[in-house]
Write a structure and sequence with these properties.
Length: about 325
């Protein structure tokens, strides 16, 4: 059972007086350092809190996730229970703890050219087709706009993979107005994306050697994306639970491997907002294991070779 469906939230009253707050599980041996355990009522309290912060749904059966991901923060904040930690986070007007909680709870797993096929599709079908359409609709001599949004870009590998595809397809001196936007709710992820610096593990995942040599320079033990590719993208913190109206319209949206963390009701809302943000002839890419069936009938799946992309009806 999901604890984080809005219906379930009504049972948790966060404004309760201190006397009725959930009882923390005591440490078994005082004096001996032990990871703080989370009590069932605290699971409910935190699930509701995290859902409110970022829409991520943590089911009761995943209580261990709260313990493992928030344990270190609890320790560094010297909190001896999740309840104390909760009230400390709520009282923190700087919102720093809130940001750290989001960073700890989000799964930022990503890699360069993840699943390969979306990037092949971009190169061989979507961009050429889009340029064809647009060339006839923009005034002669004006640059053709190409606006692409990576809607949960994590540490930036997705948007930089897109930038590399565009650079290789269009060359350095093109007449296109390229706008690549990467957004994510995690401050730490956005910061790394913005620096464009990756460690050995990250760089070895999905990035062909020839692209590493061409588009990265070493920086100590790490690799930094070239200024040319870096300059193609902008990054911004953004919560997909909010209104998308400040972002404008896009020709292509990558919204991959993020909606899996949301309840159906929120997936429906997110993909309807995605539909509103996409040009009528735009393209949507979702994760390899995701589907929009029962989520957003405004999109129809289309197949090209072995890949699936979505367009508005
Ligand atoms: C698994 S990563 C996916 C990264 C990339 N799209 C990919 O497929 O490789 C999921 C990302 O979604 C972000 N995320 C989770 N909830 C979010 C929300 N409400 N708004 C924006 N981003 C969110 C996380 O911070 C994380 O970086």
């Amino acid at each position: 059972m999901s604890l984080t469906t809005p219906g379930n939230f009504s049972s948790v009253n966060t404004k309760e007086p201190a006397a009725s707050v959930p009882k923390a599980v005591p440490k078994p041996f005082p004096g001996i350092r032990n990871a703080v355990k989370i009590a069932p009522a605290e699971v409910q309290l935190f699930s509701k809190y995290i859902y409110g912060l970022c829409g991520i749904n943590i089911e009761a059966s995943k209580a261990y996730l709260l313990e493992t991901r928030l344990g270190k923060l609890l320790e560094s904040e010297k909190c001896d229970s999740f309840t104390t930690f909760y009230y400390k986070a709520k009282a923190d007007s700087s919102k720093l703890l809130e940001k750290q909680i989001i960073d700890a709870i989000t799964t930022n797993e990503t890699l360069f050219f993840r699943d390969a096929s979306p990037f092949d599709l971009l190169k061989h079908k979507i961009i050429p087709e889009m340029i064809d359409h647009r060339s006839t609709s923009v005034p002669k001599g004006s640059p053709v706009p190409i606006r692409i949004w990576s809607a949960a870009c994590s540490t930036g590998q997705e948007i930089y993979s897109i930038a590399i595809v565009l650079r290789e397809l269009l060359g350095p001196n093109h007449n296109y107005s390229i706008k690549l936007l990467g957004t994510d709710i995690s401050d730490t992820a956005i910061k790394q994306a913005s620096y464009g610096v990756y460690n050995k593990f990250e760089i070895e995942r999905g990035l062909p050697r020839e692209k590493l040599q061409r588009y990265f320079t070493t920086q100590g033990e790490s690799w930094k994306i070239s200024d040319e590719i870096r300059a193609m993208a902008t990054f911004r913190k953004f919560n997909l639970m909010e209104s998308f109206s400040s972002l404008g319209k896009f020709d292509i949206i990558f919204c991959r491997n993020v909606a899996i963390y949301f309840i159906l009701e929120d997936r429906i809302k997110v993909f309807n907002k995605v539909a509103d943000s996409l040009e009528m002839d735009g393209y949507l890419m979702i994760g390899a294991t995701e589907s929009l069936t029962g989520v957003c009938p405004r999109f129809i799946p289309k197949r090209h070779l072995k890949s699936i992309f979505y367009q508005l009806r």
